[in-house]
Amino acid sequence: MSKTISGFSKLSKSKKIDWIVDTYFSNKEDAKHIIKQYWNSNDKLQQLHDEFIENTITNYYLPLGVAPNFLINGTSYTIPMAIEESSVVAAASKAAKFWYDRGGFKAEVLSTTKIGQVHFIYNGKTETLKKYFDSVKSKLIADTESLTKNMQKRGGGILDIELRDKTKDIKGYYQLHATFETLDAMGANFINSCLEQFAKTFKSEAHHFELFTSEEKNIQIVMSILSNYVPNCLVRAEVSCKIEELSDDKKVSSEEFATKFLQAVNIAEVEPYRAVTHNKGIMNGIDAVVLATGNDFRAVEAGVHAYASRNGRYSSLTHAKIENGIFTFWIEIPLALGTVGGLTNLHPLVKLSLEMLHKPSAKELMKIVAVAGLAQNFAALRSLTTTGIQEGHMKMHLMNILNQFEATDNEKIILVDHFKTNVVTHHAVVEAINKLRNKKLN
Ligand code: MEV
């Protein structure tokens, strides 16, 4: 059977579902039931979600959890996290509480500029292009006035445009490399609109530049787009305490804990295989808050990993040191976030999450997200260098296994209690369920 279809996007939602179900499922009723089960009974709310993207057939739920007891620059926060991985929220909450009792997190925004580029091809003398750029630069900015007026009023806008010669990499390749301040907006739409206007002006004005030959007048715009690499939109978060305050576990001394912790961070600094997993753990915290607050986690991921490779080798985003008996652990990451525009005014749970965070500015949200990443990494390294990761991880995963076996509420109570003192493995849980069920039968 052919599985291509034309005009799919024009079908009604129910016709789309019919086609999907008829084409791909043997148990059609079952498939339809699963799809419809996730529809929201509030039609308006459902329509809102339907219209976020094209071809919506249903909603895909992620749990929205909260991690309380974060102290950041002296203010208490409960951080909302949208994530499916069972141990992440528990780990964040544990790290938050641990550092609450030791003075909390300190965070500061180091810079806030974003980048956009018009990529173009020009075959001619570089010197003449530079003269053209100098002569047209003020018009590039003037022509975006209607786009930048509001942003400028609030103190943001276009900061600068540079001409960059990239002909060493690709014949005839140059860029208009622009920097922007977008304040509380993530700024993608603003930046892209400005860039597309730059491109239009830059191309059309070239025809009137007297020093260009007729070939030079023909500037070819390749594309205009913001960069998700934002090394000048940086935030730093840190925790510190006296070494002797570090361990709250009688089995491990504070000194031993600090030494091993530092070794783990050092390994992630020099060993890319470890650094990727180390940073993945950081992104568990970061993505969950980025998603809960309606921000673009793909943009954040791309930018953060590029930053982790900025010195030519993929490396840790966090660092640690011990100086004069003080343990310090910190993160420095680029984050382009918004607290206005995009989903922030649309998605009810995003609005709720932002309100829970005291309606932060973009700068405040940068600090909160960086802290969530640092806390997550602290929790992971703490487990990894002491008990190992599986103990906590499997405890949290227990509920997933119980649900897989459709355990009743009563069975869950008994088995969760049983595994408080027994090691959780998939095999052990299955065995315990079977034993319990057999007992009931006898
Ligand atoms: C699992 O999602 C994340 C960890 O692997 C992170 C780490 O190894 O640091 C636990």
Task: Summarize the model shown.
This protein has 442 residues and is α+β, with helices and mostly antiparallel strands. It folds into four domains: 8-50, no CATH class; 67-109 and 237-387, Alpha-Beta Complex (3-hydroxy-3-methylglutaryl-coenzyme A Reductase, Chain A, domain 2), CATH 3.90.770.10; 114-226, 2-Layer Sandwich (Alpha-Beta Plaits), CATH 3.30.70.420; 393-441.
Mean pLDDT: 96
- Rg measurement, Å: 27 Å
CATH architecture of the largest domain: Alpha-Beta Complex
Strand content: 15-25%
CATH topology of the largest domain: 3-hydroxy-3-methylglutaryl-coenzyme A Reductase, Chain A, domain 2
Order of helices and strands: HHHEEHEEHHEEHEEHHHEEHHHHH
Identify the strand order in the major beta sheet. 3-8-10-9
Domains (count): 4
| Name of the CATH homologous superfamily of the largest domain | 3-hydroxy-3-methylglutaryl-coenzyme A Reductase, Chain A, domain 2
By CATH reckoning, the class of the largest domain would read Alpha Beta
Protein name: 3-hydroxy-3-methylglutaryl coenzyme A reductase
Family: Belongs to the HMG-CoA reductase family.
Keywords: NAD, Oxidoreductase
GO biological process, one term: coenzyme A metabolic process
